[in-house]
Design brief:
89% helix; Integral membrane protein; mainly alpha; transmembrane; transmembrane helix; 4 helices; membrane
Amino acid sequence: MAGVPASVVAAGGLVGGYGVARWTKKRPLGGVALAAAGAVAAREWQRKGGNGTAAALTGLYVAAFAGSHPLAKKVGAWPSVFAVAGAVAAASWVVVDRK
């Protein structure tokens, strides 16, 4: 992954996936971006933290994506996406990237 922290990749996947879906009006294309970044981040989580860490952070990534939808009804789409991306990035940084 050439020095890009997994936290940045994961946050970028959540923000970028939403952006792609919104700007292209093709939700599946946003899903591809989301999944691709998630796979890259998961591989790095596994490499740095092992299988359990990768499973936990991947679960958080998926939960953040799902949780952004009801949160968006309360705070708006972009604030929701940035909030969940920040939460995933912070967790990733604490668990694997700061080491």
